[in-house]
């Protein structure tokens, strides 16, 4: 479950030790524009689909999932990076993707200090990523051919 409801400003206390509580702590510890930016995109992601689950992976990286990884939220010195696990397969009419464009699977959005987040476009991207994950979950997995007996 998420720590925040689908509407802006409806924050519930996250259970102690949960991924949501750890993300809250990470945001607070940043204490600068990166924390504010990560908090804002987190809010948008959770508004886009209230069934998204927050997780922590890879040494504390915030991850938002539903039917598979939707995106991660990494913080670096000069950017907050949202990496969409299957971004290369997503429509991006607002051209939010501006990083990792050469990858065959992933795409990322680098947000720098002072840059505005296009909430409407980001919500559409998150919803498309969820739909792609759920569609893939509905497909039967490809079966490997049986090995010939010896």
UniProtKB/TrEMBL annotation:
YdhG-like domain location, by residue? 34-130
InterPro entries xref list: YdhG-like
Gene3D superfamilies the UniProt entry points to? 3.90.1150.200
Query: Matching Pfam families, A to Z?
Result: DUF1801 (PF08818)
Task: Give the residue ranges for region: Disordered.
Answer: 1-21
Q: Report the protein name in the record.
A: YdhG-like domain-containing protein
* Organism of provenance: Anaeromyxobacter dehalogenans (strain ATCC BAA-258 / DSM 21875 / 2CP-1)
């Amino acid at each position: 479950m998420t720590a925040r409801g689908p509407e802006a400003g409806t924050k519930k206390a996250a259970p102690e030790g949960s991924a949501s509580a750890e993300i809250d702590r990470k945001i607070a510890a940043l204490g600068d524009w990166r924390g504010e930016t990560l908090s804002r995109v987190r809010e948008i992601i959770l508004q886009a689909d209230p069934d998204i689950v927050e997780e922590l992976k890879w040494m504390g990286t915030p991850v938002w999932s539903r039917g598979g990884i939707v995106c991660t939220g990494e913080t670096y010195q000069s950017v907050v990076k949202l990496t969409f696990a299957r971004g290369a397969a997503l429509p991006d009419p607002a051209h939010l993707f501006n990083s990792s464009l050469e990858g065959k699977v992933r795409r990322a959005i680098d947000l720098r200090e002072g840059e505005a987040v296009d909430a409407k476009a980001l919500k559409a991207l998150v919803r498309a990523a969820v739909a792609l994950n759920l569609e893939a979950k509905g497909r039967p997995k490809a079966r490997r051919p049986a090995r010939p007996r010896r």
